[in-house]
Amino acid sequence: MVTAIVTGTGGQDGYFLVQRLLAEGATVHACHNPANAPPAWEAAGGSLSVHALDVTDADAVRDLVRSARPGEIYNFAAQSSVSRSFADPALTWQVNAAAVASMLETVRLHAPEARYYQASSTDIFGFLPGESVTHNENSALFPQSPYAAAKAAAFLLCRVYRQGYGIRAVSGISSNHESHRRPGDFLSAKIAHHVAALRAAGPGGRGGVAPLELGNLKSRRDWGYAPDFALGAMRILRQVDVRGELSGEPEDDIAANYRDYILGTGVMHSAWELADAAFRLGGFELDWRLGGADQARWGASFRDSGQRAIVVNPHLMRPTDPLAIGTDPSRAIDELGWSPTRGLERFLREMIDSRGY
Q1: Engineered SS bond to 324: which of 89, 119, 132, 232, CB 3.0-4.6 Å?
Q2: What span, in angstroms and rounded, lies between the C-alpha atoms of 72 and 51?
Q3: Percent of the chain having pLDDT more than 90?
């Protein structure tokens, strides 16, 4: 059975991946940020060891790899806030780029037989303000934040170690993906939290809940379901085996046969559609005002009462944001048999129900 090291397990991707690995009977070393408590995993058939690991501590990473002797390493550890990356670019670089260089060097020297997965982001490709773009594996790198620049560096490092050292290192380049474990400062979680509060207040208390403030309602993004992306990471790391099973033509398990993959649904939704779906799942029908050039006048009201439900806060508008960011995940779908859940309801329902009211 597989022995795996998973970093960043305090986040949603690492959490769901640990669950999948344990379910298949793997021995898992789950690593979390020492500043935070580890999550509580559900009982499963594998063996679990939990480690408080600072991924910027090269000696600690090396010691864990040498003692665990993993066949698979999944790195989800990251400073994941774009806004924080502008406030603290040095920290972002240390966690998202320098730590990756150290891990890859540890693999090269102490675990060259291991497969290494790097969690990347479509932010590495960038965009033009006000434009629409669809990313695939051949998109040019154009990072536009310290976060994206560090992620791009990690992506390129994996390619260098794959091509230059023969290390089986790959990147999964993910679009937005959501779950009930999404932190509250993300748009989907903000909306779900508000809907849950409205539902808890009941018809009589709804008037005491202020309207939800949002930014650009017409911006469009590709939102997926996080557990699907954990499965996608496993298939990307095991791609030689997966492609061989699907095609009936075995491939040599060598670095030259490894490639990077985009993970996304291939379907975009606007921010107002995301909000509308969440309110509808909470039992609230909305009437929308979406006309006119001045988006500050856009918004939505409760259909039954006419009370304002959603308003646009001009301070949340970002003129430099792209109008739409889409993905083309056809390579992962065709070559790896990956099947992402499309639509907003699956993750929104779980997020609303888990808000703790």
Answers
A1: 132
A2: 16
A3: 85
pLDDT of 174 reads 97
Is pLDDT of 8 > 60? yes
Using CA atoms, how far residue 324 sits from 44, 109, 219, in Å, is: 40, 42, 6
| Cβ neighbours of residue 306 closer than 8 Å, sequence gap 6 or more | none
pLDDT, one tens digit per residue, over 140-162 is 999 999 999 999 999 999 999 99
Whole-number Cα distances in Å, 75 to 7, 281, 326 = 5, 34, 24
Domains of the chain: 3-179+222-267+325-341 (3.40.50.720), 187-218+269-316 (3.90.25.10)
Measured CA to CA, the distance from residue 83 to residue 92 in angstroms comes to: 11
Q: What is the model's pLDDT at position 356?
A: 59
Q: Please say whether the dihedral angle defined by the alpha carbons of residues 161, 165, 169 and 171, taken in this order, is positive or negative.
A: positive
Give the closest residue to 66 by CA, choosing from 112, 7, 117: 112
Contact present, 174 and 264 (Cβ < 8 Å): yes
pTM, full prediction: 0.94
pLDDT for residue 295 is more than 90: no
Provide the greatest CA pair distance for the chain: 66
Q: 124: closest CA among 84, 87, 82, 90? A: 82
